[in-house]
User: Fold this.
Amino acid sequence: MDEYGNTGEGRAARRDEAVRAAVEQGLLGPDHPIVGLLDVTGIRESAAELRAAFAEVTAPGTPVLHAFAVKATPLVPVLRLLREEGIGAEVASPGELALARAAGLPPERTVLDSPAKTAAELREALALGIAVNADNPQELDRIDGLMLPHNPKGMGGTPMAVSRSPLGIRVNPQVGGGSIGATSTATETSKFGVALRDEGAREWVVRAYLDRPWLSRLHAHTGSQGIPLSLMIRGVEETYALAEEINRRIGRPQIDTIDIGGGLPVNFASEVTAPTYTEYARALKAAVPGLFDGRYGLVTEFGRSLLAKHGTIVARVEYAKSAGGRPVAVTHAGVQVATRTVYVPGSWPLRIAAYDGKGRPKSGPEVVQDVAGPACFAGDLLAEGRALPLLDQGDYAAALDTGAYYFAHHYAYNSLARPGIYGFVPDHRAGGVRFATVRDPQTLASIVAESGGAHAGALTTLHAPGSR
Ligand SMILES: *Cc1c(COP(=O)(O)O)cnc(C)c1O
Assistant:
């Protein structure tokens, strides 16, 4: 295993220990049939690898902000842990900004991207000094209104900026999509950013910078899972070339920071971390050396690649049955915690690990079986026709690599409760593993409250005039 655990052996061993300890310590059991587990050691390792990978390729003194895409794992304790590891936050909604602030992320380590920022959100971001990437010309108009409220032409006829927010424009380099349409953001017709190859768009972008001396950043995010590395690199090449062109046309380095987005794909097929941040950073440097020579600061926005491999959903097998000759393990993990996998299984397959009733890895001959969730529709399957040691009643099935876009993205089908989430570290004194609560399991009272419980009579007392 290398220094960052890229073969994943250490990670797999920590996970096995944590599942056993979760059963032993009562976090998992008949009354708590599903939990999410987060490997704190692994998260710290990934953050360290990210920082080291870009430190290796950038000129000394280059400002680099790694802004974690909060949407990947929107949990305050995770954001706080990453903050401690030197990682900032990329937010795309008022809720995500509130989470970042609750975790103590300062404005200068926060970036706001979203295709639908309201005027109020923009005003707040600019007042706080948070970096904003404008998605389109109409949004830039709104920013103009906020930046130049009283003094459209300041001293010497130059527009004067009134916010310290670093501001940029998001472009879509239109380099194409990957294997998953829903996560491909640089297609011809993607909804994000200014579509650079459209008629007149490039010239519009250049003019936008010429007219606004306070626009100092350029942003692109070429896509997420399913985008090949070569396409991500082409997206960065195009963005860099545009920054160079703009600075040349203006005659000074007005764009001082390039935000290259996130999107490093995750290997869901085995324990190995691939590609690594180091591979990506080196490939970027080889393809776009000018980006790393110290003339530009860098912002990155990785999400899935920082967290995915450090999360595990563990669910109890409530019943083991057989249908049409196929064994079916009915567990407590389904569409509510693995929404994409259940609805689009071909694009989002997950590895499943089998544990016995004491949380020990299950061995024995592999049997083709279905691992089903608790929701009331036939397609609620975590895995279909998967070869695994036969799952029995009281065993546990674990969905691996689910630290991003899974258990932190609850889907309220069948009013299933949000499971508790616990972080863990090895600890030889505390029965081998020490846990900390990241999120409490949802209570029934909370489900009722979220479902209009306070307004139970609202509809029966609402009558059209004269109907009663
Ligand atoms: C979703 C998103 C990211 C993170 O993508 P990952 O695939 O999780 O790394 C980064 N930037 C923007 C603008 C995004 O929308």
